[in-house]
Amino acid sequence: MKSTRILMGMPITIEVLDSDDEGVIESVFAYFTHIDETFSTYKDTSEISAINAGRIAPESASAEMRAVFALAEQTRQETDGYFNIWRGDRYDPAGIVKGLAIAHAADMLRLANCANFYVDAGGDIEAVGRNAEGQFWRVGIRNPFDIRQIVKVLAISDCGLATSGTYIRGQHVYNPHAPGQPITDIVSLTVIGPDVYEADRFATAAFAMGRYGIMFIEQLADFEGYMIDAGGQATPTSGFRRYVIS
After folding, report:
1. Residue 111: which CATH number?
2. pLDDT digit string (tens) for 92-102?
């Protein structure tokens, strides 16, 4: 089974090879809808918008929201403050919610006894098991200067991949230690981690570090990365090549 929907402002694709139960995929899409309704800063009716507008105090938020705030604070501490969901006068948890939602969606599929599948939300991916050819799942890293081109094809399984960059959404990641200053020295940073939640949160933080970000990923155990700077120069971490097939 394979299905794509537009949710959370992006295409979300789910492919499952070892189940024909459409109800499983429907339940996962329903979960993504719930996440959008709860965490979207673009919807006035969402809980995060109510918090930002002062209609709900953060300490009175739902358990789900408070858990995300706690994970965001943990990540802030782990990244020397480079990951921060506070944007001057409001919260924006997008940098942690997407990866967390994909990882939870993958857990839902595992609980439904699915062993070979992937979940792709806007290019951030959790890949589990094998594809229809019995091989690791193939994913591509886009050329940030021409998104019609793929600069690397990777083979991944039982891990997550996330990319932070400016080539799709424009400037949306900033260095919290230099408020208001955009990241201009790099344009794309892809991270492979134990799962997509871990890859996503550290990709966001590393991108905010600019050129130093790839060294931050290099120093993390069980993570690899691939950075493209503003001049088109690519810098991989030392173990990244084991995922590359072309």
Report:
1. 3.10.520.10
2. 999 999 999 99
* Per-residue CA distances from 160 to 48, 81, 123, 163, 174 (Å): 26, 23, 11, 10, 23
Q: For the chain, how many residues are written?
A: 246
From the list 185, 221, 179, 187, the residue with the least C-alpha distance to 202 is 221
Query: How far are the Cα atoms of 76, 119, 225, 240, 245 from residue 222, in angstroms, in the given order?
Result: 19, 21, 11, 11, 19
Cα(162)–Cα(191) distance, rounded to whole angstroms?
5
Q: CA 37 to CA 40: how far, in whole Å? A: 6
Quote the domain boundaries for residue 221: 2-243
* pTM exceeds 0.85 for this model: yes
Give the count of domains, the chain.
1
Alpha carbon distances (Å) from 9 to 41, 122, 139, 169, 221: 11, 9, 21, 11, 32
Q: Say which amino acid occupies 146.
A: D
pLDDT, tens only, 217-245: 999 999 999 999 999 999 999 999 999 99
Burial 193-231 (b: 16+ CB within 10 A, else e): bebbbbbbbbbbbbbbbbeebbebbbebeebbbbbbbbe
